[in-house]
Amino acid sequence: MDFTKRIHRFTVVPSLSGELAILQTLAYNLWWTWEPDAVELFKRLDIDLWQQTRHNPVEMLGILQQTTLERLVADEGFMAQLKRVEEKYHGYMTGKTWFDRTWNGERPLRVAYFSMEFGLHESVPTYSGGLGVLAGDHLKSASDLGIPLVGIGLLYRQGYFRQYLNIEGWQQELYPENDFYNLPLKLQRDEEGQPVTIELDLAGRKVHVQIWKVQVGRIPLYLLDTNMEENDPLDREITAQLYGGDQDMRIRQEILLGIGGIRALNRLGIDPNVCHMNEGHAAFLALERTKLLMEKHGLRFPEAMEAVRAGTIFTTHTPVDAGIDHFPADLLERYLGRYYRFLGLSRDEFLSLGRQLPKNPHESFCMAVLALRLANHANGVSQLHGEVSRKMWKNLWPELPDEHIPITSVTNGVHTKTWLSVEMAGLLTRYLGNRWREDPTDSLLWKRVANIPDSELWRTHERCRERLVVFARRRLKDHLHQVGATAKEIAQADEVLDPEALTIGFARRFATYKRGTLLFRDLDRLARILNDADRPVQIIFSGKAHPHDVEGKELIRRIFQHSLEARFHNRIVFIEDYDMAVARHLVQGVDVWLNTPLRPLEASGTSGMKVAFNGGLNMSVLDGWWPEGYRGNNGWAIGKGEVYDDIDFQNEVESRAIYDLLEKEVIPLFYDRGPDGIPRGWLACMKASLQTLCPVFSTERMVKEYAERMYLPSFEEWRTLAGDGLARAVDLARWKGEMHRSWHQVKVISVEAPAPEEVPLGAPIPVTARIALGDIVPDRVIVETYCGVLDSRGNIVGGELIPLDHAEEEGGGSHRFTGDIETRFCGRHGFMIRVMPRHPELGPVYEQGLLVWG
Ligand SMILES: *Cc1c(COP(=O)(O)O)cnc(C)c1O
């Protein structure tokens, strides 16, 4: 007998009455996680419970004894602090924001931000790593800036795994079950108190989905959950684990996120006009939006699609194809067969949406390709990654030169208040005033870092380093306890690391491209560096490998084994179970953050930015964000961005570069102390780093950029196409159809540019182009010259587009267009003519197949 069906259920909630009731509100809004006074308040409730619950106030409030609560109400100091935090909270929730001030409420923008993971706090385990933490920081800054945005994701029963190492250092995985009722989650219910649910059809099975809400400041985040009794056990597993399971599981999760996500919003009465796909996992959302519009307005797929595309944004995070989801046709048929037929698409039309070359039947269905086809705005997450992405996806725009591929970049950032230590935040407020909290993007403000006395900045940083060392020892002791070490061994853990030694941090996913063991190529040299009696150096490692990644686990095992060798024993520590709490301690306490990805495989990386805010210095390969951050005086670059074909050679060169930098620059600078024990040169570098990096690499800057460069333009395009019952979208689809039918007549007949072999700089060159247009009228096209300097292979680089004017019709559908080319640089130039369709209202429109070069 299945007992679970007979159990009557109810939820017990803590009884916090009167003056303490506000604690409940605070615990259920993650605003507290980036407000140090609120954190302090929860710690004061019970410091042991705070540790035991992994810093989870909701759970704490559930276990606190009545006597403790009574004691708190009687504690004047506590009650005064509670009052202060309450006022701050109300001030935050109701204050005027950047978005209000800048756009004055005149833009009814509504953004929905979709992501497979969200890293908000260690107590809410719905993330695995960088992608999730970025999504969490995005929501927090959207809240600070007042962007009208909601988040959509999945609620995993087990989240990502917890890591511990066995006695050999081999990674073990634990999957503790989350208790949703002890997390800051609220099940969404209707007026009758019944859970709000939506349904999905997966391979003929009905799947019921319930919706939970996490409040992140002003921003609601809705998380979908299939763990309902009505569901087939197979489908209850869809939200069991983040990145667990096989492709069959992955596609169901992505259908849930994209299609289920749109349905959930619709069910909740939220009607976004801009949808942002954080990575390709969410790309199915555009299909569901299209389907809704088709039903509502009685339209065909291509018509509704035009409007949806205008209101869709895609951010790619992966510079390697292996990191992107590809699904075989039979899997799509199983789960989306009925769905695409309902959209009025043939099997081939549907599959071609996910192929770079639409006609290639051997290509599998790629989620990033689907996202690129269905989004009007796409971006990579650093300038370098933007470049890499344009090359990676150029097959989708076969008629465009690389630099015109419409994938731009918005460089990542971090949420300042989440990652900054309390000590550093206090120091900044003393010398910069309070404004860095509201507007950390003001670079003039950060110039004032120069006014911080060296000794104060140094003491502040030293306190954070000490705390990191204490934290590392405690975690090491926990580990030793776990593996059954002797009392003596455990006691010795108090001797590892030196709170005053130069401390290097290295923490990240243990994917092989991040090259966690680069430092260990020459063990003798490393041992000499670390054990110099006068100038000791120590390294703290942390990070998880994906459960199936044996190579990644092997890297961890090797580092762990080295940490046991006598010569490294007190100098290298591996902290288990990397999460946001470990990350916070590390980024706040290290002197140097080491980053060694194989260029250009790190799309951005964000942990180094967290370090920069706390006064640590970056030492990194010129990959991801670092080419934008590095200025010569604010940290170190490993190499100059070279890429060799032989990876082993690359590893050798770069590991030597690391040793050289450490021996010749980093260590001498750190230990060059004045009579007061303060390293002036090092502090100059710290200050340069704070001044140059803080105004740029925050999510405040990043989300503003998304708002100005992506959300608002996308909103305007949506408004144009979706207005009047999608009249313009219908018209655009029809117009594109006509253009496709007529375009074969467009040809460049001849081009004349009577120029001598050498042209003086700036002298205009007259150009005449004869173009055959057939029955297309000349103001339905735009004819341009594309002119620029030639590289050694004869390609135009950094070219400029200059439109030509229609001069006359010459009969027989042939037209003369004329204009001038202007040169702005010396050197070998070339130019081409290109013809593109021009919509009467929307202007030039790029559409695959509708572009001619001559
Ligand atoms: C910031 C952060 C990351 C991102 O790390 P990168 O290696 O810089 O991409 C990953 N995991 C956690 C827990 C983080 O806090």
UniProtKB/TrEMBL annotation:
UniProt entry keywords in alphabetical sequence = Allosteric enzyme, Pyridoxal phosphate
Q: Which domain of life is it from?
A: Bacteria
- Its Gene Ontology molecular function terms? glycogen phosphorylase activity; pyridoxal phosphate binding
Q: Which residues in this protein are found as N6-(pyridoxal phosphate)lysine?
A: 610
Q: Which SUPFAM superfamilies match?
A: UDP-Glycosyltransferase/glycogen phosphorylase (SSF53756)
Give the family this protein belongs to, as stated in its UniProt record. Answer: Belongs to the glycogen phosphorylase family.
Q: In its UniProt entry, what is this protein called? A: Alpha-glucan phosphorylase
